Amino acid sequence: MERFRLWLPRVLLAVYALVMLWLLFGQRLGMQPAVSYWEYVSWSLNLVPFRTIGEYVKILLDPPMAYLLRHAIINLAGNVAMFVPLGVLLPWVFPRLRRFSRCLLVSLGLLVLVEVTQLFTLLGSGDVDDLILNLLGVLLGYALFRLAARLRRRT
């Protein structure tokens, strides 16, 4: 039973990492932009916090078309939900990341790496709003991890 408790979180983190690599990078492999590299990079970069989030919130409040409403919901909720497991798995697998500040810094570093890699490999965009939503997901996951740890100690 003790072996199971040791390898289960590691296996879950590995599976999660592979799924995330596919979702974040693998789906767009082979797609070529119709503009030059630097035009695409500049077009795909948003460094203004809450610009994209604000646009999606406007769509949620007054949807012009059904497909845009669906896109806004998927983008906002998906960017949060996709990273909740990271907030649970990092402190579960790595005991040194059980401190909030360490988990936050490591997660932020990973998320910045993802955004920069997506931008410069042309496999996505570099959006500070994605970073904000992803970090919110990590924080929710971390809160769930702490809550589960507290409940385990009570039993």
Automatic annotation (TrEMBL):
Superkingdom: Bacteria
Pfam families in the cross-refs: VanZ
This protein's UniProt keywords: Membrane, Transmembrane, Transmembrane helix
InterPro entries: Teicoplanin_resist-assoc, VanZ-like
Coiled coil location: none
Official protein name in the record: VanZ family protein
All copies of domain VanZ-like, residue ranges: 14-147
Residue stretches spanning the membrane: 7-25, 72-92, 104-125, 131-149
